Amino acid sequence: MLPYKSLIQVERKAPVALHIQVCNNFIALITNGTLQPADILPSSRVLAELIGINRNTVKLAYEELVSQGWAESIERKGVFVLSKLPIRSKTLLPETGKSNSPKEAFIWTNNFEKATPSDDLQKTVLAIDDGFPDVRMAPVDVLMREYRSLSRRFHGRNFLKYGSSMGSEHLRTSICNYLSHSRGLVVAAENILITKGSQMGIYLAAQLLLNSGDNIAVGISNYGSADDTFRHSGANLLRMPVDDNGMDVDFLEETLQHKKIKAVYIIPHHHFPTTVTMSMERRLKLLNLAKEYRFAIIEDDYDFDFHYDNKPYLPLASIDHHHNVIYIGSISKTFAPALRIGFMTGSSAFIGAASSLRQLIDKQGDTLLEEAFAVLFDDGEMERHFRKSLKIYKQRRNLFCDILQSDFNDRIEFKIPEGGLGVWTSFDKQIDLIKMAEDASKRGLYIGNGSFYKNESFVTNALRMGFASLNEKEMTEALGILKKIVY
């Protein structure tokens, strides 16, 4: 007889009934091949004594096994594993030291072996992040109040049903109004798709625009997740130089003369990662080239709302009269990253196709959340939040840059950014950023190691250092720890 005393494990304080625990133990023994078809099970009396439970509990377990089709009871003989079950080979535990990578049970394709996993900032206490908002400032209580209020209303219950994959019509209309008065971008609700942040918009645009072998122009330094998305679609990345005036459009024009380009991905407002702003001259020339060579412009404008010293340039989409621009924005980047709300604008036909594709990977968004955000836009709460945040973030930017200038002047080079939530910082070549990040972690500080910004054409000893999520005390503490490490 098998050593049932060790094989059948039960936990009296578990929420699962004892007889179900016993039943599940036997199912595991059958499915892993320890018990084979037609094997006899121990009598209820014997098993009860072995594992220290009531005999009636064992009887209930056997009845459950029979009812589920795992066993059969034969009068005057006992309970047996169902003889009709297919024979299963016994599962063996892998021998230690044999292999570090066990053979997969089935064949599949992994195109993401080199992908950099996202950092889990929910578990960090003190962090110099990539340039994210301070979630403590977001009016989440107001948002949740509207969310609860909508869920309690009679008409609000309709938002719990399936809705449009384009997103809440109310929110799309509210964003239309917001884009019109803040960015001079006039679009209709049918030209807007609500997404789960800007990353979904980039993915949808790439899937619709790019086929295997197509060329897309991107910055020599660029947002790594966008690069990965374009590669996933099978496209070739053509790297364009980026200087203090943004992407070099003259270089792009030269490239267009001997290569067909399907799309250009650009972050003209605060280029990622370097934070530079594209000049108006280059913006206009890019639009002219798009018209002449019939390529799409994917404009990623993830943090338009934060500009400190001058009024920001209007987005390319606002001055695009030939409908070449697909405009992508994010509420997540300006409110709270975990609340995944973004948007994409384009022609009604393109947005309709993107909506159809979105249904295949994510039927729709959280309609109640989208409706609650719409109320915040309509009531002016979002605009008040942006104004308040802008004032505080400017103060934090100034303090952060002052400390960098005074305490790290021979270790870090940087330019004060006109907007955005991070500073592009170049470190002394003698500083190993990977080791620096590891040492900082040991001291309770999260900081990136620079690997996310590197690609096949762009290798630099630099980091984006976010200042917005740190108050004055946290900023002083974080940079104090960093100073001890780099000096």
Topology (SSEs and partners):
Layout lengths: L3 H4 L10 H14 L12 H8 L3 H13 L3 E4 L3 E4 L44 E3 L11 H13 L16 H15 L8 E4 L2 H12 L5 E5 L4 H9 L3 E5 L1 E2 L2 E2 L1 H8 L6 E4 L13 H14 L2 E6 L23 E6 L11 E4 L2 H14 L5 H12 L2 H27 L4 E3 L7 E6 L5 H10 L2 E3 L14 E5 L5 H15 L1
Helix pairs in contact: 2-4, 3-4, 5-12, 6-12, 7-8, 9-10, 13-15
Structural summary, described in words:
With 487 residues, this protein is α/β, with parallel strands linked by helices. The chain folds into three domains: 78 residues, Winged helix-like DNA-binding domain superfamily/Winged helix DNA-binding domain (Arc Repressor Mutant, subunit A); 116 residues, Alpha-Beta Complex (Aspartate Aminotransferase, domain 1), CATH 3.90.1150.10; 242 residues, Aspartate Aminotransferase, domain 2, CATH 3.40.640. Helices cover 39% and strands 14% of the residues. It contains 15 helices and 16 strands. The protein has a seven-stranded mixed sheet, with helices on both faces. Helix 8 links the parallel strand 5 and strand 6. The longest helix has 27 residues. The N and C termini lie far apart (68 Å).
Contiguous runs where pLDDT drops below 50 for at least 5 residues: none
Just give the CATH class of the largest domain: Alpha Beta
Basic shape: elongated
- Within CATH, the superfamily of the largest domain carries the name Type I PLP-dependent aspartate aminotransferase-like (Major domain)
Instruction: Report the C-alpha radius of gyration, rounded.
Output: 30 Å
Structural class: alpha/beta
Q: Do you know the CATH topology of the largest domain?
A: Aspartate Aminotransferase, domain 2
Largest sheet: 7 strands, mixed
Proportion of residues in helical segments = 25-40%
Number of domains: 3
- CATH architectural designation of the largest domain: 3-Layer(aba) Sandwich
Number of helices: 15
Question: How are the strands of the biggest sheet laid out side by side?
Answer: 4-12-11-10-9-5-6
In angstroms, what separates the terminal alpha carbons?
A: 68 Å
Strand fraction: 5-15%
Q: What would the average pLDDT be, to the nearest integer?
A: 92
Number of strands: 16
